[in-house]
Amino acid sequence: MPCPHAFGIATLLKRAHPERSLTVIQSAVMTTRSSTYNTLNQIKEINGMGFEIAMPLAMGSGHVDPNKANDLGLLYDATAQDYEPILTITSSSRYSCLNPSSDLNYPSFIVLYTNMTEDDNSDILEDCHKCWSRCDDLHG
Predict the structure, then answer these.
(1) Largest CA distance in the chain
(2) How far is the C-alpha of 82 from the C-alpha of 61, rounded, in Å?
(3) Do residues 24 and 76 touch, judged by C-beta distance below 8 A?
């Protein structure tokens, strides 16, 4: 098991909210995380010369907060149908690539700009469209 404490938190959340899907529970854990430890120090990663502040790809979602995850405001949900357009990169004949999609409903956002230079001061605006719900919308 690669991350037993996260699995334990997910199990406790499922027990507290049996009506929530596993995707919603994953969303709750990922969107309420922190990039600092409970000591309020930044999460660090090891580089060749010591420690430095960890980049998102090095620390994953970050430091999980079970109490926040139990009382969330926004949640992301995905069904098997949301993953089907993404499967067009496989050689499966079951899925068509006529309408490929990069809009997987996943509670994590990352944008990589490979043509940027240090001298580039232009403003960059990315419009991310995601499906989300307020938690109280699910409970009437």
Answers:
(1) 54
(2) 21
(3) yes
Distance CA 23, CA 138 (A): 14
Q: Inter-axis angle of helices 4-16 and 22-31, to 10 degrees?
A: 120
pTM metric for this prediction = 0.55
CB 62 within 8 A of CB 37: no
Where in the chain does DSSP place strands (E)?
44-47, 50-53, 74-75, 133-134
Tokens 């403003």, located at residue: 123
Contacts of residues 9-14 at CB distance under 8 Å and 24 or more positions apart, as own/partner, are 9/64, 9/66, 9/69, 12/66, 12/70, 13/66, 13/69, 13/70
Written as one letter, the residue type at 27 is: S
Looking at the chain, the whole-number percentage of residues with pLDDT higher than 70 is 52
CA distance 38 to 120: 36
22 token code pair: 């596993």
pLDDT digits (tens, 9 = 90+) for 4-41: 888 899 999 999 999 988 888 888 888 788 888 878 88
Q: Whose structure tokens read 């406790």?
A: 12
